């Protein structure tokens, strides 16, 4: 019961466990894979889904991909291609999730609509 109250203020404890497990897996990668995974992670945190419930499965799939590439000795550039941004954008499309910017665009539209109603 207490954990439910704590989660209201701190967020999901399960997601925090998943995040720590994910970060531990990233730390185990060799440098080029780790550095690339961290760069993609950073990009996803800015442009990815709007909630942890959607982000964590993406990150877990990402680490699976990089662990597999490292095990099979696939170079990072062969994995992500010539355009890393295109790679990540395509990767995100597989999840069909709302992005932070989508939320902000809806918030902006709603604020303008409300301002217009208040003016009438």
UniProtKB/TrEMBL annotation:
<dbReference type="Pfam" id="PF06304">
    <property type="entry name" value="DUF1048"/>
</dbReference>
<protein>
    <submittedName>
        <fullName>DUF1048 domain-containing protein</fullName>
    </submittedName>
</protein>
<dbReference type="InterPro" id="IPR008316">
    <property type="entry name" value="UCP029876"/>
</dbReference>
